[in-house]
Amino acid sequence: MSIPRLLVVDDDPEIRSMLTQFFQQNGFIALPAATEDQVRAHLKSGRIDLILLDVMLGDENGVEICARLRREQDVPIIFVSALSADHQRMAGYEVGADDYIAKPFNPQLLLARVRAVMQRARRTPSLAYRRRIRTFRFGGWVYDGKRDEVHAPDGYQVSLSQRETALLKVLLANPHIPLTRDEIAAALDVTGSGDKPEAQGRAIDVLVGRLRFKIEANPKEPQMLRTARGVGYVFACDVAVEDEA
Amino acid sequence: MSIPRLLVVDDDPEIRSMLTQFFQQNGFIALPAATEDQVRAHLKSGRIDLILLDVMLGDENGVEICARLRREQDVPIIFVSALSADHQRMAGYEVGADDYIAKPFNPQLLLARVRAVMQRARRTPSLAYRRRIRTFRFGGWVYDGKRDEVHAPDGYQVSLSQRETALLKVLLANPHIPLTRDEIAAALDVTGSGDKPEAQGRAIDVLVGRLRFKIEANPKEPQMLRTARGVGYVFACDVAVEDEA
DNA sequence: AGATCAACGTAACATGCTGTAACAAAAGGC
DNA sequence: GCCTTTTGTTACAGCATGTTACGTTGATCT
């Protein structure tokens, strides 16, 4: 394989050049870009093996851009973000990103991830499916990221709705961390237009209630999906994560 | 693994340099920092394996800083404190600290703890889980840190409210030590926004009363939750502590 | 001992937050 | 288009927590 070419997309010039230089020094050809148009230009003018995409691109939303790019072309994309709050956003829905890395990052880790994704991309025939797939285990339960399904422990028989599953995913991605209703709502709405700063009613409460009813042994005394009074909710359960190829 | 890099955060220059030198002499790369901004700067500019964080950073609250950092990045954090009174603060709520050490410390112990935490961090995939879990036993009672629940001795049947449980945790962390109402309130509110210097009414008294009613055999003559007249309250009961992996 | 006064215990009330049933709206399925 | 399922809204009841008020306790002084 020839020298890998990657596109560094960030609106902060400092970070952009920092990243570009870092990858250049590590044997990549790294091209800087700041806007969606520039990205498209690069994609048209030459081969790009991977895109490093900032989640916050000025007032643009990296997630949206990713979704658009993905529809048009199969480029591996790795998200980069400064805020862990964004992390939930990513956990909430697969947008087609191949991986996700939080700033500030460990350079070695970053390199490793980039290489891993490119490896994977080379093996995978159709890239359309590529995205981070993770399976979570908690209690006797399993969330199967591959099928996006929840499997109950033994005898149980449940089927979660789409939204319930999404909520569960957000919780699983943030175990033991109290999440406010707003944070949860934001994570759930990644799939949407991305502009819903409006105050939402009690939708989250009801959703939580319904999920409890389905996954808690005794919904009246929730063991996993606990409420953090005055704050929001916590998933108080250890979760084992499994990354899949 | 390469040389471990750790960040020493303290506003007292003397302690800062003392610690930095100590760790340098023991084969670490130790970087000093005094403010939250400096911490962030370091995190951005390079790999940091562990943070030693003073509980009192001038008028800032180390606990708050820890909570903020934790939300953004998974760095192991060890708290350092001069006052045992601060201990309550830590017991009040798990903020995500990996360990807690009281000044003045035994250098060997400090080294051991630092190494232990770094070991643990390396094994743990997602650091988001890491937090100190402790189980307390007193009288026939048990506080189960894993579930954050209180179990009554035999036949008894009680369920403590969240706040009552929190109060109990504060007391259990400081057996035989008289705590003022302010200290208790501070410890209870670690979870909150952190800015409540206002004088609080008799809330603590009432809370203590309710807890007594639930856990004392004869609430009128409390054996464990004694009042220290003119001071506050004492938990006059031997407590066995169990650390969990 | 008795008087005095501050500290404490607690019942009763006030407030705010949460759980949830019941209804309404929206999204699919056929 | 009609029916079913999912999702959001609203309203209300229940609970957790804080506040107030008042009676009691205990320390101190004379």
TrEMBL record, chains A, B:
Keywords: DNA-binding, Phosphoprotein, Transcription, Transcription regulation, Two-component regulatory system. InterPro entries: CheY-like_superfamily, OmpR/PhoB-type_DNA-bd, Sig_transdc_resp-reg_C-effctor, Sig_transdc_resp-reg_receiver, WalR-like, WH-like_DNA-bd_sf. It comes from the Bacteria. Residues 133-237 form the OmpR/PhoB-type domain. GO terms for cellular component: cytosol; protein-DNA complex. Pfam families: Response_reg, Trans_reg_C. Residues 133-237 bind DNA. SUPFAM superfamilies: C-terminal effector domain of the bipartite response regulators, CheY-like. The modification 4-aspartylphosphate is found at D54. SMART domains: REC, Trans_reg_C. GO terms for biological process: regulation of DNA-templated transcription. PANTHER family: DNA-BINDING DUAL TRANSCRIPTIONAL REGULATOR OMPR, REGULATOR OF RPOS. Residues 5-118 form the Response regulatory domain. This is Two-component system, OmpR family, response regulator. One of its GO terms (molecular function) is transcription cis-regulatory region binding.
